[in-house]
Design a protein that fits this description.
20% of the residues lie in helices and 38% in strands. The protein is of the alpha+beta class.
Length: 653
């Protein structure tokens, strides 16, 4: 009997293993993400990938069933296209079409090609810019990636070396390269939204692949007077900004990946102010390196002297030297010498001017803004070319630009700034041409609302004070989510739509009271969290408010909340919350006061102005959701927020 049972178990185990071998695991594919450099796309997937890359479909023996995700590619014509098939894969949602502009690809379509076996097909329609030799598929157990171009270092796009412009102020035709749109309403993702695992897969597949995000930072070395940050690709700097408590200056490198071993590391900077206790250095200036977003590398100089450090961009645009300004002035940073060939200034659009400076050889440079002036320090240029400066001064609008020699083989060019001028400085990929765009910010005059003066009642005259709001305050309104980021969702109602409508009403109420307003988005579009805070910081408003709708897994939860983070925002939060959660509103809206919270939300943590985030109700509660989409409720919420803002501004004055 025992032998018979053992025989049955053996047979059962055999069939179980055989069945498991045939029941191939299914990978769920959710969509595509395109790299900003127009070189690669990442296939978003859920579940472990078992890759086996074949050159053509014919290489795949259909009679053999394996647990692998067999990937094949084939070229077709009329029209010219190439398709990639992935077996044992399921596409979540409907088929998607991505339309590309200024690319070697015209469009990319992804669909469920078959269900027996389950095969996802991606079709690439290309144009004359496309070179089939560059098309390749890479995969490991976490990610599938497709390369379709190899034009990274040969890019003609200028790279940013200094910027304090908002995204809206940046001139699209010279700051943006490839753009993507969709013929469906499916979610379109940007490479900035990829996960850590996805980026690591890209980095680990091959050396060239990690260049596709333009820059790969993999080295920080100590020199006698500073630190040298180096990598592969071309550096392009985003906005820099100053933070306090503790004192630090933040520099972001866009479209950049930090080597895993350097992330969240700190490196000591040379400092005369280091605090030594019992022979041990306990406090000094440091450089912190991190991956702030999947496509943004962040360098943070922290310490009492943080504001006195300078960044010098190397002539090959692959390195940054970080040191005290005096050490930068005295250091010889490159053996390459250069000379200024010409200056040219012209109008480039409405309230937009550009100054072009050309050089004989690649330049190493430092840029900074100080005392209403913009400085460009050329580290390997001995002569500023007075004759060319004199020619520039013949144009009246530019006769304030000056140049001077500040050290051996070092030249400084100084641009006086008028009030409310935004700057975007860019260097050519060969570092022989510098373009500096100056954008004059023009504040729109708020509408003047005429109203008949009314004699206040006698008992109110004592309490009444003259208005302190005299068309001088600025408020940044941040409608939560937007575009591909829909926010909380219930019953086909999106948080992003409610927040935008309430924010528009809020803007209207504030404008009627003479307040300047700025919206981080005024339509349904995707705006990254760092773009929202950077936008606000570039304007320096009096207050910042982010509007959101709450959600919970429990449908019975209702109520309004107000969140703050920095102590300077607490009084602002109290004023606004008192208006939203007044007994009158709570009764009228049939909701609850859930209170004030100190929360480390990104936008209120990284915004310099007093900043709060309001949750105006729960989309997950059927009754509250039904009311939140009504115009009457939205108007009442907007007015309550506006009243709180106005009270805070008046009292602060």
């Amino acid at each position: 009997m025992g032998k018979f049972i053992k025989f049955l178990l053996t047979v059962f185990l055999f069939f179980t293993v055989a069945f498991a071998a045939q029941a191939a695991p299914v990978v769920k594919i959710t969509g595509l993400e395109f790299d900003n450099s127009d070189n690669i796309l990442i296939i978003n997937s859920i579940g472990q990938v078992f890759p086996k890359i074949m050159q053509t479909p014919e290489d795949n023996d259909k009679s053999i069933r394996t647990p692998e995700n067999i990937i094949t590619k084939s070229f077709l014509d009329n029209p010219d296209r190439v398709f990639v098939d992935i077996t044992n894969a399921v596409l979540t949602g409907n088929q998607k079409t991505y339309t590309l502009k200024n690319s070697s690809l015209n469009n990319v379509k992804i669909s469920q090609f078959s269900t027996n076996p389950h095969t996802v097909r991606i079709v690439f329609e290309y144009n004359k810019k496309f070179d089939p030799k560059n098309f390749a598929v890479y995969a490991n157990d976490r990610q599938i990636m497709i390369r379709y171009s190899s034009t990274l270092v040969g890019s003609e796009k200028f790279k940013t070396v200094y910027n304090n412009m908002t995204q809206g102020e940046r001139k699209v035709d010279f700051l943006e390269s490839v753009t993507y749109s969709s013929e469906t309403k499916e979610k379109i993702l940007n490479v900035a939204q990829t996960t850590e695992a996805q980026f690591q897969a890209v980095v680990e597949d091959e050396k060239n692949t990690k260049l596709k995000s333009l820059y790969y930072l993999d080295s920080v070395s100590s020199l006698s007077n500073g630190l040298m940050v180096k990598g592969s690709g071309i550096i392009s700097l985003k906005n820099s900004f100053v933070l306090e408590n503790p004192s630090r200056v933040v520099y972001d490198i866009e479209n950049a990946i930090v080597a895993k071993e350097l992330r969240n590391k700190s490196f000591a900077l040379p400092s005369n102010n280091a605090l030594v206790v019992n022979g041990v250095v306990t406090q000094r200036d440091v450089l912190r390196v991190g991956q702030n977003t999947p496509s943004t590398a962040r360098l943070v100089v922290q310490g009492n002297d943080a504001k006195n450090y300078r960044l010098v961009l190397s002539p090959d645009l692959q390195g940054l030297f970080i040191a005290k300004r005096t050490d930068v002035l005295n250091a010889k940073l490159t053996e390459t010498t250069s000379a200024i060939l010409s200056y040219e200034a012209k109008n480039a659009g409405e309230n937009l001017d550009v100054v072009n400076i050309t050089f004989s050889n690649p330049v190493a440079l430092t840029t900074f803004e100080e005392n209403s002036k913009f400085y460009v320090d050329l580290q390997n240029v001995a002569d500023f070319n007075q004759k060319a400066i004199d020619e520039l001064h013949k144009t009246p609008d530019y006769n304030g630009i000056t140049a001077q020699k500040i050290a051996s083989e070092k030249t400084r060019i100084i641009f006086p700034l008028k009030d409310s001028t935004a700057i975007n400085a860019q260097i050519s990929p060969d570092a022989k041409e510098l373009r500096i765009y100056f954008k004059k910010r023009v504040k729109k005059e708020p509408p003047v609302v005429a109203a008949k003066p009314q004699e206040p009642k006698e008992q109110e005259k004592e309490k009444q004070r003259p208005s302190t709001i005299k068309q001088m305050y600025t408020v940044v309104i941040d409608p939560g989510h937007g575009g591909a980021d829909v926010g909380a969702t219930r019953a086909n109602i999106y948080e992003k739509d409610i927040t935008l409508e309430v924010s528009k009403l809020l803007e209207n109420y504030l404008k009627k009271q003479g307040v300047y307003t700025h919206m981080t988005r005024d339509r349904d579009k995707t705006v990254e969290l760092n773009e929202r805070s950077d936008f606000s910081n570039s304007i320096s408003p009096d207050v910042f408010i982010s509007v959101h709708v709450n959600s919970s897994v429990k449908e019975d939860i209702i109520g309004v909340e107000t969140h703050w983070y920095h102590p300077q925002s607490l009084d602002f939060a109290k004023k606004v919350h008192a208006k939203i959660a007044s007994s009158r509103n709570l009764s009228k809206w049939e909701t609850k006061d859930r209170g004030l919270f100190q929360s480390k939300f990104y936008v209120i943590n990284h915004t310099n102005a007093p900043a709060i985030l309001v949750e105006i109700g729960f989309i997950s509660n059927p009754n509250e959701r039904r009311e939140l989409v009504k115009e009457k409720r939205q108007e009442e919420v907007a007015k309550a927020i506006a009243d709180g803002i106005m009270e805070y501004l008046k009292d602060r004055k």
